[in-house]
Design a protein that fits this description.
Layout: H1 2-17, E1 23-27, E2 30-34, E3 42-46, E4 50-55, E5 61-66, H2 70-85, H3 89-95, E6 97-98
Antiparallel strand pairs: 1-2, 2-3, 3-4, 4-5, 5-6
Helix pairs in contact: 1-2
Amino acid sequence: MKMDLHMELREMVFKLLAGYECIVEQVSDYIAVDGGSQTCRFRIDLQDRYVMVDAGAEGEFVFEVTIETREGQALMMSAISSLVEWKGVDAVRRIGRGRLSEYSAFRSV
C-alpha cells in the first residue's frame, strides 16, 4: 500500500509540474524540485503514510501531510501548487513551521 500511495503522489506531482520550467530530481524516498532563481525550491520526503515538505532556499520551512486520505492528498497538492504558482501562500504558512521567505512563481512552459 505504501508504494501505491507514493506512486500516486508522484504521478500527481509530475502532472502539476508538467506545465512549468523546473528541474526535478527523483529518488526512491524523495522528490526535489527547483524552478530556478527567485522561486521556492522544495523537497518532498516520502515517509510511510505521510510526506514532509522542506521549502525555501535552505529548506527553512517545513510541513507534513498524511497521504492516506483523499483530503490529505488534496491538501498536499494544494500546498505544492501554491508554492509553484506563488498564490495562496499564507494558507501554506499556516500548516507549517519555520519562515517562508517571498519568492516568485515558477515560469510556465
